[in-house]
Specification:
The protein has 152 residues and is an alpha/beta fold. The protein is built from 5 helices and 7 strands; from the N terminus they run βαβαβαβββαβα. Strands 3-2-1-6-4-7-5 form a 7-stranded parallel sheet. The protein is globular.
Amino acid sequence: MKMVLVTPEIPYNTGAIGRTCVALNLELILIKPYGFSLDEKAVRRAGTDYWKYVNLSEYDSWQSFLAERRPPPEHLYFFEEHGAQTVYDPDYQDDAYLVFGCESKGLPFEILDGMKDRTFRLPMLDSRVRSLNLANVAAAVVYQAMRTQLGG
């Protein structure tokens, strides 16, 4: 299983997600451009001293990621605030790509176009909450996706 962040903007979120990836032996895939530099203290601080252990891959664009990795569409899981299904609905592939967009805009239309059946949301019960923190959503999603592997 792999975590994919498309154009992340906040270094603390990327660092925290990297730390989760280390804890679960997952690859972290980052799609450029970023809203920060990977050598920023903030990324390292959020990932603490684990950042050096992150299995990190970087791509210049979504298209270069698709061209090089060639992930089967059924292995792509997109997470958006208004996903058609919840994170509890799919049976996740062991080699799934869990794809998250940037903090301010989510995933671009070009990526989501035609992927409604592959787009999922983390439920929120109070309508006053517009969105959740990206690092929190990513952690909740990956633990749900790996529940059978983790003994759940």
